[in-house]
Amino acid sequence: MVFSNVIDHFVPAVPVSLIQVVLGLGAALIMRVSIPLETDWFLLLFIAPLLFNDGRRFPKRELWKLRGPILANAIVLVFLTTILGGLLFHLIIPSMPFSVSFALAAILSPTDPVAVQSISKRAKLPEGILHIVSGESLINDASGLIAFKYAIAATVTGVFSIKTAAIDFVYISIMGFISGLVIMAIILMIENWLYRQGINDVIFSTVLQVTTPFVVYLLTEEFLHASGVIAVVAAGIIFHFYGTAPDRSQPELKLVSEKTWDIIIYTLNGIVFLILGIELPLATTNVIQNNKINTFAALGISFLAWLILLAIRVIWIYAYQAVSSIRSRKIKSLQTKQMPTFKAALLAGLSGVRGAVTMAGVLSIPMTINDGSPFPSRSLALFVAAGVIIMSLVVATVTLPLISEDKAPLLTRANSTDEPDEIDADAVEDDTDTNYISEDEARVYIMKLAVQRIEEERRPSNQKEAFDLILDYQFLIRRLELKLQDKKEMDSIISDELALRRVALRGERAAVQKLYDDQKISKQAYLIASAKLQRLENRMIRSIGHKVKLGHGTARNFVKLRNRISLWLIRHKTDQDISDELALIQREQAKAAISALSDYFARDDIDNQRFDSQSVYHLIVHYRNQIELAKDHSKKQIKDQAMNYQSLRIKALAAEREGVQVLLEQGNIDWSMAAHLRQYINYSETVLIMDYQNQ
After folding, report:
1. Which pLDDT does position 419 carry in this prediction?
2. Can you give the pLDDT at residue 542?
3. Which of 48, 138, 357, 672 qualifies as a cystine partner to 217, CB 3.0-4.6 A?
4. Whole-number Å distance between alpha carbons of 521 and 532
5. CA 382 – CA 281 distance, rounded (Å)
6. Are 362 and 42 in contact (CB under 8 A)?
7. 693 CB burial (10 A radius; 0-12, 13-18, 19+)
8. What sign has the CA pseudo-torsion 670, 676, 679, 680?
9. Do 511 and 655 fall into the same domain?
């Protein structure tokens, strides 16, 4: 699963869900991996936390504002798809019993909410259609799974009665909803009571949150025999409204719990699609060995099933939008440009990507029924479901770039996202102002302000810490600026920087030679310094004509380790302590390098304007930092340095925060970008406090 997201980074055009399916298929075919699935455990471990998280992150405004589309699509459209789709599935697959056809149509009705939003926003659908697809994708998991579960139960028991089914459906739905509300209310009461008693440990509270959906699901299913699916959705919504009271006094709990949930959902979604890939060979083998239907016919059935589901969605969405338009015209609030169009309905239909919940449900189909015989058409149902999921993903991937000006890749629930839980739609405007700068440009601006603040705060007593911090910022600034430059400009900057480094290196070598000639250092110290300079020069020579890689890669770390071992061996060949001599060499080398650069810039034949100011500043700070590092520091000085560094870091972060506000007020960034930048600053400040506490 981790490897699939690495691939997704390099091939963003392919949804990570498809990559995970392919990797699962490879694991099954090459490594003979198989996973025996227990239905009850699978629903508990995958469905419960996924749906609880959906309810927990349900936007409060949207929950009330879109109540009409939500109920219409989450209930009416799901059961329309189940009944109509089930009948049509039975027509094209006569060997599949009605109950299994209904179960297959029911489990194919839920759509991936992240994929729906990804397509609908980029396609710039009308507001009415955005409402309908939003409402459909947020709750239809629960109603689809209820219909699926009941159809499976009818197949397993062989008993079906419309009257009994209606009564049971009302009971399991209403009781499941009430159960979720009551159990969640009790859990919140217990949590608040524990908090008042002083049991407010962040890890304890996070674990309590994580175990909540499993408790709600088990109690509802085992003791009340109601819908655990509806219960966990209801519990999640109640938690979203009333379960955040301790967060105001414990902001750390909000951060830790949210990231913990991100990890859990990220992992569960990835595993579901890997299991899909692993199960594909089993389904394919059984279909191939079935004399009643061949593989090509199964593929054709999968395509027809996808077309049926698409047609139902498109017709429903077009009809719903037409009714909404008539109603809106009566109150004179609808503009002509918002009239329903078949194209918009088709785009909304294509947004119905099937995802993790569909796969989790279909994989939970039992192997046998009550009399011990195999579950009818299980392999074909699994094959068709997998085919519809893959087709919907592939079609959306192909059509998304064609219908959208935004070329960003399709997102699904299997993607790792860091989007905010809730956005105030009234506060966000559709602004296409071209004055907005990119996030990288904004970060460069605020980090330069931080460097400027550090320079203002630099004193003789905190020189080392100031240069350390400036150097850290310079690495980040240079990395971002090189990324912002085009290839030609970047190559020019790198070439000029290498030229400056060679000038500085000649100054360093001359300083070492002078110290040795004046007999201020021993031969051993001279050899160590010369060897180090030679390695630096070799690295620069190798880098000429090649792409300079920024960062701290594994190969670079191995080179550093090798160099340290070499220096250690040379030092231990002598019996005398030469640390003072090495410190002297470091100081004089740095001074000589700065002097050589100053002389170079003072030459008449050198155009100083051609050199990148950040490259020059970075070199100067690097050598001034070397001078400070070479000074003798006592334990008390080291402790003072840590405090000085913390103080400077806090002031630098304050400057970054002020820079974000300046960019926002000047209209260079929007509120969303400002929130993202501030979040990064807040994280940095939190890490700084944690480091201080650990020290």
Report:
1. 47
2. 62
3. 48
4. 16
5. 11
6. no
7. exposed
8. negative
9. no
Higher pLDDT among residues 675 and 422, named by residue: 675
**534/443 same-domain check:** no
Count other C-beta atoms under 10 Å from residue 664's C-beta: 18
Q: Is residue 187 part of a domain?
A: yes
Q: Please give the mean pLDDT across all residues of the chain.
A: 77
Range of the domain at 612: 490-544+574-632
Q: Which two structure tokens, joined as six digits, stand for 63? A: 């929950």
> In the chain, how many domains are there?
3
For residue 47, count other CB atoms closer than 10 A to its CB: 25
For residue 508, the one-letter residue type is E
Residues 588 and 688 in one domain: no
Domain with residue 361: its CATH number is 1.20.1530.20
3-state secondary structure of 300: helix
Q: Which of 632, 651, 678 is the last residue of a domain?
A: 632
- Which secondary-structure segment (H or E) carries 469? helix 463-484
How does 453-473 read in b/e, with b if 16+ C-beta sit within 10 Å? bbeebbeeebbbbbbbbbbeb
Residues 610 and 642 in one domain: no
* pLDDT of the residue at 356: 66
CB contact at 8 A, 468 and 625: yes
Three-state SS sequence of 120-140: HHHCCCCHHHHHHHHHHHHHH
In a domain, 374, yes or no: no
CA distance 400 to 166: 40
| Whole-number Å distance between alpha carbons of 190 and 671 | 37
| 8 Å CB contact between 543 and 501 | no
Same domain flag for 143 and 104: yes
Q: Which two tokens stand for residue 325?
A: 């338009």
* Number of CB atoms found within 10 A of residue 65's CB: 15
Contact partners, residue 385, CB within 8 Å, separation at least 6: 104, 107, 108, 354, 358, 359, 362
Taking only the tens place, the pLDDT of each residue in 244-303 is: 655 555 677 878 888 899 899 888 888 888 887 887 777 667 776 666 666 778 888 889
Average pLDDT in the 129-147 region? Answer: 68
Contacts of 685 (CB under 8 A, 6+ apart): 650, 653
Phi/psi of residue 368, each to 5°?
A: -135, 165
pLDDT at 405 over 60: no
Last residue of a domain, one of 366, 385, 403: 366
Are 604 and 680 part of one and the same domain?
no
Q: Do the domain assignments include residue 377?
A: no
pLDDT at 432: 45
Q: What is the pLDDT of residue 150?
A: 79
CA–CA separation, 374 and 372 (whole Å):
7
* 168 & 104 share domain: yes
Q: What is the number of alpha carbons within 13 Å of residue 552 lying toward its C-beta?
A: 5
Task: Answer yes or no: is 661 within a domain.
Answer: yes
Name which of 527, 615, 605 is nearest 566 in CA terms.
527
Helix (H) or strand (E) holding 397: helix 378-403
Calculate ∠ Cα 297-298-303, nearest 5°: 95
- The answer to whether residues 273 and 359 touch, using CB atoms and an 8 Å cutoff, is yes
Same domain, yes or no, for 169 and 150?
yes
6-32: b or e for each residue (b if 16 or more CB lie within 10 Å)? eebeeeeebbbbbbbbbbbbebbeeee
Alpha carbon separation from 108 to 94, 190, 308, 363, 392 (Å, rounded): 19, 38, 11, 12, 11
